[in-house]
Amino acid sequence: MLFFLYFLGYETRALRDAAEKELVDLTGIVLRNTKRSMQANHPEGTEDIIRTVGEQKNILSVRIYTRYGAVRYRGGPQDPRAPVGVDAPTCVVCHRDHPPKIPLQAKDMIFEDRQNGTRAIAIVAPIFGERSCYEAPCHVHPQEHKLLGVLEIRRSLEDLDEAVRKGSRRLALFGLGVFILTASASVFFVLRAIYRPVSHLVQSASRISQGDYGAEIDLDRQDELGELTRAFNHMSRSIQERERKLFQSREEFRTLFDEVPALILVLDRELRISKCNKLFREVLGERVGEFCFQTWDSQNTPCTGCPAIRCLEDGGVWSIEQTRRLPSGKKRTFLIHAAPLKGQTGQIEAVMEILTDITPIKELQRELVLLGETVAGISHTIKNILGGLEGGIYVVDAALGRQDAQLLGKGWNMVKGNVARISKLVRDILYLSKERKPVREEVDPQWICKEVVELASSMASQAGVALELESTEPSGTILVDPMGIHSVLMDLVTNAIEACQSKPGQDSHKVTVRCMFRESGETVLEVRDTGPGIPEEIRDKLFVKSVTTKGSKGTGLGLLVAKKIVDEHGGSLEVESIPGKGSTFRVVLPVLGPDAQFSQSSPTAQDRGASLRNDSMV
């Protein structure tokens, strides 16, 4: 397009230059012939020349002005005779300045003007007075008149304009044709070489944005688009590989997050739960959006020494051991770790807390401590029994030396009594050391109570204690190990009689045995005495370690054995005691005891998770 505009401008200037040259040539012809005619004093010749030139094609007017602006000679179709002023276009050429500046060459006086609505180009040539003029006999001009007049020739530019218009139309048509061809070729090139590959790139990018990370473009070219396509395909493969690794890492993290046997939760900076794992939801329910401290006992303030707050403050990893109550009411001990989660800017955005249930470990620690205390107590008991045996042997030896039958019988009773004590101690230790499954039979609990009362009545009578079986509502049958429950009840009754013996200064003591049936279907065997009661500090340890209030006469293992038997039945052993007034022991048995054993061994990590789930549902 710029070329066509340049060519059009060039052609216009060439036509204009040709028209100007034509005017300059005509001006020279007119001036030479006018000079000869005036020197020959032949004005008719000047008029002929002016008229002849004025009749030329495209010439609008030919005029010779006097020095005073009057038209002396004229020719052409548009040639007014009226004088002109200094503001006329012909005069302005020289009179625009003061004093006027007269051009010395005709070509310097070419200007463009409109005459009667026609665009024209005019040339003004001065006619100077010369020696050959003012010395001629016919000369009428004085010598001091340097400028005798002005020759003006006006030429119409319509032919030039028409030629320019025709040229413009030809160029426009040619340019339009070239433009259409070029545009068509460009469109074809763009469609084939650029649009289609770029369209494939856009479609592939759209597929990638929708999750199809394996999208590639099949384009084998060696230009820039080919390079771009290869780079895009490489990017697509890289994204696909990274997505695969990201998915694998996400699945590994999700599995670890949900399946680890610990409670895991993610807290925002306000301590609100934003995420929690599967075990947390099973134990405490769906708590997303709540404050973390509200999940335990419905607290309204953060826990004392909260590791999450300390983690948010200094960005470190903090740990704390806390005992918390589950919704079921049971207490569990947790080891809590809190670690910061940072964003891309390095700022702490959240905190992850991991709560590991260490309740079994704490219980095992307590059991180990109690075991040590129990072993020490049993060792002391064995030492006392061995001392009793040594004393009995000494008495027997002395009786044999003296031939004293009465002393011999006393010594032998001492030996038998201590042998019986150590035999019972060994049996209790063996029973506690083994896991047993009760051999269940359908029996009447009232019958067990009655048999125990009958067997212990002699012992109670010798101790001066009233032993009674309290009758209750009509009995039924339960599914238990009769020997085991009989042993438990006998041990409780024996302990109650001995406890009453240890409370002097009271006229009468009473031990009551009764069997009850609760509305829930549980069976309760109760032993109540009026003895001295059990101090609180001992009562809390009755079923976890070997403790006794009988001094050297007891081992403290009887209640442990009883508790183990009851646990094996899925029941519970309860105690109530008021110091100075007596104690009450209750054996609570379920409707039908569970078939499975209740293991007391140390649980695995999965067992701890299951234990948490079970505790949350109790």
Roughly what percent helix? 40-55%
**For the largest beta sheet, what order do the strands appear in spatially?**
2-1-5-4-3
Looking at the structure, what is the overall shape? rod-shaped
Task: Report the uncertain regions.
Answer: 593-606
**pLDDT average, as an integer?**
77
What does this structure look like?
- The protein has 618 residues and is an alpha+beta fold.
- It folds into 4 domains: 2-156, 2-Layer Sandwich (Beta-Lactamase); 260-357, Beta-Lactamase; 363-433, Helix Hairpins, CATH 1.10.287; 441-598, Histidine kinase-like ATPase, C-terminal domain (Heat Shock Protein 90), CATH 3.30.565.10.
- It contains 15 helices and 17 strands.
- Strands 2-1-5-4-3 form a 5-stranded antiparallel β-sheet, with helices on both faces.
- Helix 1 packs antiparallel against helix 2 (43-54), helix 7 packs parallel to helix 15 (605-617) and helix 11 runs parallel beside helix 12 (482-501).
- The longest helix has 52 residues, at 158-209.
- The protein is rod-shaped and about 210 Å long.
- The chain starts with a helix and ends with a helix.
- The model is unreliable at 593-606 (pLDDT under 50).
What labels would you give this structure?
Beta-Lactamase; five-stranded antiparallel sheet; Helix Hairpins; 17 strands; alpha+beta; 4 domains; rod-shaped; 618 residues
